[in-house]
């Protein structure tokens, strides 16, 4: 159970951001510098609490591999394009963090020496221990895996205490709350419930990986500026998925 605290209750976290989180609703541009800066400010606030902070970011604001494959493109090619989109988003977030004085490293699962570090587990952990924010991009480096699965994998590898999945809604519901006003929000659900009820918050591979490695997930609304900090301080926000 989560409890309120004046100090962080987590030592090391993975923040999962969708690519859509970087886009202003209704705007033409794929990345809003203003929104990226606001997200960077929230990450800085958590990092300054002494929390080792890493980020896994999606690329859906630029390209969705699965959607493209449904329209006839080769799935492997489409997924690699999606991985490259996450690199663009990761670099945008890094730039905003550096402007705020936050030392940041981007680590990519697909080698591109002039752009980012390769993902090396020991190096990633060392960066976190030194107080740097680490942004993981390019997914797992393999097609057919989502960035939700990347978050579960990286959290397992770096031994994170929790995954904080930022969304546009305030938790997990039994039905889509945007279309059904009677939808019920869960305060807590188990991994098994999430899998059997096919709750579309994370894909089944990500849920299974978190379940196997006992990594809890908090699903929360990123649009409320204080939520990220409040969660690491132990406040009950959103929905927690755990055993």
Helix content: 25-40%
Q: What's the CATH topology name of the domain at 12-161 and 227-236?
A: Carbamate kinase
Over all CA atoms, what is the radius of gyration? Answer: 17 Å
Choose one word for the global shape.
globular
Per DSSP, the total helix count is: 8
Annotation, overall tally of beta strands: 11
**What is the typical, i.e. mean, pLDDT?**
93
The CATH architecture of the domain at 12-161 and 227-236 comes to 3-Layer(aba) Sandwich
Structural class of the secondary elements? alpha/beta
Strand order of the largest sheet: 4-3-5-2-1-6-10-11-9
Cα separation of the termini: 11 Å
Query: CATH homologous superfamily of the domain at 12-161 and 227-236 - what is it?
Result: Acetylglutamate kinase-like
Low-confidence stretches: none
How many strands, what sense, and barrel or not for the largest sheet?
9 strands, mixed
């Amino acid at each position: 159970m989560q409890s309120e605290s004046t100090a962080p209750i987590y030592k090391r976290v993975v923040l999962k951001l969708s690519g859509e989180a970087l886009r202003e609703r209704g705007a033409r541009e794929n990345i809003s510098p203003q929104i990226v800066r606001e997200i960077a400010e929230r990450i800085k606030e958590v990092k300054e609490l002494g929390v080792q902070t890493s980020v896994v970011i999606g690329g859906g604001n630029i390209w969705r591999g699965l959607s493209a494959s449904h329209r006839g493109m080769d799935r492997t090619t489409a997924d690699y394009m999606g991985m490259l989109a996450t690199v663009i988003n990761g670099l945008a977030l890094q730039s905003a963090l550096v402007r705020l004085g936050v030392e940041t490293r981007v680590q990519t699962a697909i080698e591109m020496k002039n752009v980012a570090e390769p993902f090396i587990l020991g190096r990633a952990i060392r960066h976190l221990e030194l107080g740097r924010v680490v942004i993981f991009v390019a997914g797992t480096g393999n097609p057919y895996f989502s960035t939700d699965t990347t978050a579960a994998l990286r959290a397992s590898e770096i031994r994170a205490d929790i995954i904080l999945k930022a969304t546009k809604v305030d938790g997990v519901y039994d039905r889509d709350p945007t279309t059904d006003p009677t939808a019920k929000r869960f305060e807590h659900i188990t991994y098994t419930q999430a899998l059997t009820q096919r709750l579309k918050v994370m894909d089944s591979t990500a849920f299974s990986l978190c379940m196997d490695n006992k990594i809890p997930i908090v699903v929360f609304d990123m649009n409320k500026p204080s939520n990220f900090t409040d969660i690491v301080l132990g406040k009950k926000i959103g929905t927690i998925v755990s055993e």
